[in-house]
Amino acid sequence: MSKDKMKKTASYLPEHGPIAENGREILLSVKNVDITFGKGDNAVKAVKNASFDIYKGETFSLVGESGSGKTTIGRAVIRVNPCAAGEIQYKGVRISGKTSRGLDREVIRNIQMVFQDPAASLNERATVDYIISEGLYNFHLYENEEDRIRKVEKIVEEVGLLPEHLTRYPHEFSGGQRQRIGLARAMVMEPELVIADEPISALDVSIRAQVLNLLKKFQREKNLTYLFIAHDLSIVRFISDRIGVIYKGNIVEVAEAEELFDYPLHPYTRSLISAIPIPDPKLEKNKVLFTYDPSVHDYSQEQPELVNIGHEHYVYGNTKEIEEYKAIRDAGVPMKSITIMDPETAANDAPVQQEIDWNSSQFMLQTPLHDTGSLWYTIGSFLLPPLGIIGGLLFKKFKHLRNAKACFKGAWIGLGLLGAIVALFGIFLLSALL
What we know:
The protein has helices spanning 3-9, 70-77, 101-110, 128-139, 145-158, 175-187, 205-222, 233-239, 257-262, 267-274, 281-285, 319-331, 375-383, 385-397, 401-433, and strands spanning 26-37, 44-55, 59-63, 85-90, 93-94, 111-114, 193-197, 225-230, 242-247, 250-256, 287-288, 305-308, 314-317, 339-341, 353-355. It is α/β, with parallel strands linked by helices. The chain has an eight-stranded mixed beta sheet, with helices on both faces. The longest helix has 33 residues, at 401-433. The N and C termini lie far apart (118 Å).
């Protein structure tokens, strides 16, 4: 039996998926997928010819603005949204369209989803115990009642909740706790692939890091694979192995995380990176955004395709654009997507621009981000001049020139005042002796 025919007739999942050319196991493969809503003249194609692979054990992030089709693809993987064209394969077996009952149960068991809104995704009339146990009941993944309770209590503790929370209802919890319940519901099934649909966007900033750490912890311990759907590139960069960028249903760029930030070849990717907030209000105020204009593409003669230009970097474009992208990448000079207007020269005809160096893992500027020349450095150096001089020398060594200037200023004023006091005291003492 041919391999293609096996994909169509398989009623079970193999132990391992196919091996890619780079030697990695392909767990999920999205191939030329179209997803359409509505019929006839009212039909809307939400996803167009989307293709990408997810390797076992990695975090693949899908990013784009609201309405770009990220969640639509995620829901298609769990078979909520049907594919109008193309297919989705899991371990080399087609799981989109009609499947056998046995294969359907295996897919449900192996692919779980964590939803964006923890309040809407939990049954308000069910206790936490039942919410987490529902999958165990449906697939009978426990030996007896004691085994079920043990599994539920263990996963609840692993996500940071307490066993006494099991008798409560979702409305009794905060947003972060509800998301932990949703995470426990998915992880108790011991899946291989987890689709995380913006799992932290509805949470407070202080809770986001905790949930992200939980996801990474489960990935290490259980060898999980993630399809992480998000729109915040500043977070995606540090949790992803590879990133796919989607614009109006089209996958426009796919690359490893650092590769994508060093060489954002497609202009839409550059616009997303330029929109990342800078944690300094002065710099953010003077930031110049890179705006994406779709009219720069001329696809009247030739339709674009997603092409590998080398370095496992895929870009969407026609032949002319692909040649330009490849030339930029082969040059090996990292691209900069953000410029900061110099406030002192912003009014001039030819303003000087300061560019963000995206090679730095902290998005530092070519001049340090915290080199503010704070007044407190001047005051502290004024009160303790010797420490101020030492601090100024250290700041100067690490290129914090404004801070160094503030320290030296305070130290010299302090030493000058101290010298004046000593001189006056000497004059009074001399006058008294004479």
